[in-house]
Amino acid sequence: MLAALRRDVRAARERDPAACSALAVIVCYPGVHAIWGHRVSRWLWRRHAWLLARASAELTRMFTGVDIHPEARLGPGLFIDHATGVVIGQTAEVGTDVTIYQGVTLGGTSTDSGKRHPTIGDRVIIGSGAKILGPITIGDDSRIGANAVVVKPVPPGSVVVGVPGQVIARSHPRAATALPRSDDALLPDLIGASLQSLFSRIDRLESLADGHLEGHPIRPPDAGIWHGEDFSI
What we know:
The protein is α/β, with parallel strands linked by helices. It has helices spanning 2-15, 22-28, 30-46, 50-64, 190-208, and strands at residues 67-68, 73-74, 79-80, 87-88, 93-94, 99-100, 105-107, 119-120, 125-126, 131-133, 137-138, 143-144, 149-150, 158-161, 166-169.
């Protein structure tokens, strides 16, 4: 148990640059407190003290803002950053060295009594506000973008963005020893890229067309900035 507590503190210090000391993590990090509270409620649940387990989980939710069912399985090295609004359902399983940000839901899509919540692989990063729903598997070393809604299985080493979540294969697979990167600015904008490609193709076609084009044609953005008199504000 002491080794597990030390690993929880170490995970927070490694993945949060704001963590100034181990003592600060122990005293001030509700995500770490939520994991510790879950260990207590799960210990009670496995000994068939179901009411006490649910009461313990409810107390943890009240103090940390994290709702974790006592039967959920959390792997070692989990770090819940900022914590508020995180929900982890009854049959959810979380792998090793996973990072979860605020507002994440690992939820179900049915009322069946069997497996109905997701299984998260090792070293997965789940961005703030993401929703992973149903008995699906998120492969190892994947990255779920902020506010993505994932309802289908995700292969290992993938990036998922959008609503519904779209799976993108990584051009350079992430090493298992690499530190988590949570910069959402690096995630692709699939709709924006598709529109820019479409506008570029139309622009080339119009430049080859004969005759005079009436009105002001909409041109593709230059370095992500739209120019012209087409948009009067």
